[in-house]
Specification:
- The chain is of the alpha+beta class.
- It is 33% helix and 30% strand.
- It has helices at residues 23-56, 73-102, 214-225; strands spanning 8-9, 12-13, 109-116, 119-127, 133-137, 139-143, 148-154, 159-163, 167-172, 178-182, 188-194, 206-212.
- The strands form three sheets. It has a five-stranded mixed sheet with strand order 5-4-3-7-10, with no helix packed on it.
- A hairpin with a 3-residue loop joins strand 8 (159-163) and strand 9.
- Helix 1 packs antiparallel against helix 2 (73-102).
């Protein structure tokens, strides 16, 4: 059975960051997978070399003096240059993808996110017919395919906003505004949570991102502005 990332199917909510649903999640995976496979290859190579050396050059008799090696210029150049090239390549890959994560698109819709003990509040910057600001608690409504700029803050203690399928973790700190952005590809409900231990109610500090088609989102927004529930 295929489970749409972030969707509750049969009681299972897929929150794996390995199933990204937007450009930031894609950029994070663009760094993660090369780093993962390079680590696998390096670990396998080092382990194989250690095992080979242990068996190939082991002492066979107690009175036998092992062959003494006093350096090998080619090997020493190899284990200096190869790690350097790997490091430079991974640094370049990370820098290229960080520019995507750090740069909010100019046409992004801004939403203020405030952490309280123990819930999240979302302020859409829209005034309703009754003169009050449009806000939602724990439920975050967004249109698909639209960049959303997030202004993240805390009203009390340190919190941390994290939606694994959508964007990386961002801290909510009292007296400070942190910024990130998100964009969701497919409609659906995506689960997020606070990942900063913030008190005895930390475990209930979850939120749900409701990603809707642009037309459905506009219908929802119009209903909220007119005072509908």
């Amino acid at each position: 059975m295929t489970v749409l990332a972030g969707t509750n199917v049969g009681g299972f909510v897929d929150m794996s960051p390995l199933h990204p649903q937007g450009p930031i999640g894609d950029s994070i995976n663009n760094v993660f997978w090369p780093l993962f496979w390079v680590s696998v290859v390096v670990t396998a190579g080092v382990s194989a070399t250690i095992l080979y050396s242990a068996f190939r050059f082991r002492r066979k008799h107690d009175d036998e003096e092992p062959v003494q090696t006093h350096g090998n210029n080619k090997l020493e150049l190899g284990w200096t240059i190869i790690p350097f090239l790997i490091l430079v390549s991974l640094f370049g890959l990370t820098a290229a993808n960080m520019s995507v994560i750090a740069k909010t698109p100019p046409n992004a819709q801004t939403v203020k996110v405030t952490g309280y003990r123990f819930y999240w509040q979302f302020d859409y910057g829209v005034t309703k017919a009754n003169g009050k600001e449009l806000t939602t608690i724990k439920d975050f409504y967004v249109p698909t395919g639209t960049p959303i700029a997030l202004e993240i803050r805390s009203a009390d203690v340190n919190h941390s906003l994290f939606a694994p399928n959508i964007f990386g973790q961002m801290n909510a700190i009292p007296g400070q505004v942190n910024h990130t952005w998100m964009q969701i590809t497919n409609p659906g409900d995506y689960t997020g949570q606070c990942t900063e231990l913030c008190g005895d109610g930390h475990w209930i500090m979850e939120f749900t991102i409701h990603a809707m088609s642009p037309s459905d989102y506009q219908a929802w927004l119009s209903k909220q502005q007119s005072g509908g529930s």
